[in-house]
Design goal:
By secondary structure, this protein is α/β, with parallel strands linked by helices. The protein has a single domain, classed as Alpha/Beta hydrolase fold, catalytic domain (Rossmann fold, 3-Layer(aba) Sandwich). Helix content is 41%, strand content 21%. The chain is built from eight helices and eight strands. It has an eight-stranded mixed sheet. A hairpin with a 4-residue loop joins strand 1 and strand 2. It is globular and about 55 Å long. The termini are far apart.
Amino acid sequence: MKFKLFYGLVLGAFLFACTSTEKESESDTPEEVPVKVIGKVTSYATDSTTMVGYLAMDVNDSSKRPGILVVHEWWGHNEYSRERAEMLADLGYVALAVDMYGDGKQAAHPDEAGEFAGMVMGNFDEAKARFDAALETLKNHPNVDNEKIGAIGYCFGGSVVLSMANAGYDLDAVGAFHAGLRLPVMPDSGAVKGKVLIANGGSDPMITEQHVQDFKTVMDAAGVDYKYISYDGVVHAFTNKDADSLAAKFENLRGALAYDAKADSASWAEMKVLFAEAFK
């Protein structure tokens, strides 16, 4: 009888210990916190101009992480550039959609867009001052690892980020989508600090084969670590779902702009690889 009682007490203690350990183990497993991307209007300034940007991040993540600048198309800082900033935030980055025109100015017509873009790229010192202001705003954010900074740009914005990389900015990676290649600054040997991705449409009427050849020649001579992708049969603005409606609205853009879902998805995937490698 005493043996049976002793055996029962030992077995009960063992089972209790196992059950307790399992419960403790389960309770020690941290719950997965869902991603919650929130964007907010963020103003910053140069000595002469106030810019209206948009900063997006996962507010449930308190860690420091890479920061990425997003430079808009020639239309100006609009919902499209903000959407791309939010997409980057969903990937785990802190993203700032910048304002290169100042005061949140947007173009309503292609002629106006060309004028705005020309004013910025025609005065590269002012362009750098505006880029600097955005860059410092991003680097000073408490959730940004300021040793890991990248930039992407679309159309005019692609030309901007390529030019800034060529000018020697300390950017770990730069992604340019349907970007112009005739830039105000081309790189000297060793000037470009990080990796560069250029994703353009193979049938973009704004980019000639000579532009591509000249661009590659200079990049090769400067020893730039770059990847140039040309999507067959794809025209300008292929990442923007509004491209078709804009082409229909403005006669001088018909046939030049068109959204391409396949090229959009493929180029975004290439960008994700670019940043994953750059921010190891």
